[in-house]
Amino acid sequence: METSILQQIKNKAGRLIELQLLKTGRVLEVRAWESSAMIEIDLHLPFADIQHWIEVPYIKFRVGNLSFRDYTPFGWDAETNTCSLLVDTAHEGPGSEWAKRLRTGDRIQYLKIESTHQSPHPTDFIVALGDASSLGHLLAMQQLTLPSTRFDGAVLLDNPHTGQLFKDYFSSPVTTLTKRSELISWLKKQSYNTAHTWFYLVGNQGMVAELRTLLRSLGLPNTRVKGFWS
């Protein structure tokens, strides 16, 4: 009984702290991709200092009581304080359930917006590699890379329909693949200038580690790594 009461007190205190620290935004639109686990969410964040997003940012969203998940925004506009998210709901968890519940007009809450400390090299060629969990991160990296002709990449998507929708919805040079073996083969076929190409790896930690090892074996040591989950 004492444990239960103590836990209730802790939960109440935690919620009070949350309310004091949280900022709010509004859902402008939600699009669940057909025959895909991907959900696209447009947001208005009036308190976000978007004009200073010079590195790929992440937002720590409140997805439940004392529960938070990090998502990378893309397609942001500093004049309107808007941005978008892509949430892969193929993996069960609080973040996926939160994204599935969202509707146009809903209020969202977030704890903070911070940098992932990834930004494109100012002059060299940029190659971003990731998976379904990092699709928004790849689009954010593309947005920051100027001119856009300096950007290339590939993403591993288990569902080929998701890959086709990505091509239909976004103007991006990112190649969509369904297997790790295809991604490895794709990398080997590219003729990047070793001295002036930077690789940015994001997503599943196992895949990221494998790709980093592969790049080194191919004599491509210039990498920036951001592993999200294991």
UniProtKB/TrEMBL annotation:
Residues 20-123 form the FAD-binding FR-type domain. InterPro entries: FAD-bd_FR_type, Riboflavin_synthase-like_b-brl. GO terms for molecular function: oxidoreductase activity. This is FAD-binding FR-type domain-containing protein.
